[in-house]
């Protein structure tokens, strides 16, 4: 499988309610997308009380079953519309290693880091020889669990091919 993430950094005064609304209104559109294992609609807010971030951003995280499905999505009208609105983002991809754990309804956030510990999703970018790990958070983890990397809130989780 292939993990994929892009991050759109938004202005400090960007109305993040628009991102939350976009996720609510369009998140379901990727349910049952061919070849998608899951998509976690991630975003960060500078004004978050639970997980304050350095920047406002929209940074969805995907796991694809194969590269054909990922390519089909990146060439889709939906992704083109996102690029038309926010500009084309750099897309990072990692080949997953071991078991991939999906986020579930009780997860409220994601921690993305390059630590070498075991993660819910772990992968390697062989172009840059970097590892990545994604962990799904419930909000009850100790603070030191998220002291490196980035923490994003989860707005919606689209599942497919279950």
Automatic annotation (TrEMBL):
Listed InterPro entries: DUF4865
Species, as recorded: Vibrio aerogenes CECT 7868
Name assigned to this protein: DUF4865 domain-containing protein
